[in-house]
Hints:
This protein has helices at about 30-50, 60-75, 75-95. The protein is mostly helical. It is built from three helices and no strands. The mean pLDDT is about 75. The relative contact order is 0.11. It has one domain.
Amino acid sequence: MKCNKCKSEVSSESKFCSNCGERIEESLNSSFDKTIDLVRKTWFILGFFKGTTIKGKRKPKWFKKFEEDIKTKSPEIWEDYQLVINFWREQAKKKDG
């Protein structure tokens, strides 16, 4: 995180900048960045789960529902999800090959 006044790097837990003493307030951008990072990690975990699952193995019901919802409600997200799945499938092939 950076100080809004002097742009020095400060700890995310700091209340004041150690360089200039300015009060540190978490910006909306910082909060948004953390949310985006969490979403990115979640997609990779789900993609890993899907991409490395053994073919022919039954998927849990919740996972089938998850995929159906994404596919029907948000085609753009479904396409991104497919990219993540394909990435992990390729990684699994490299490991097995």
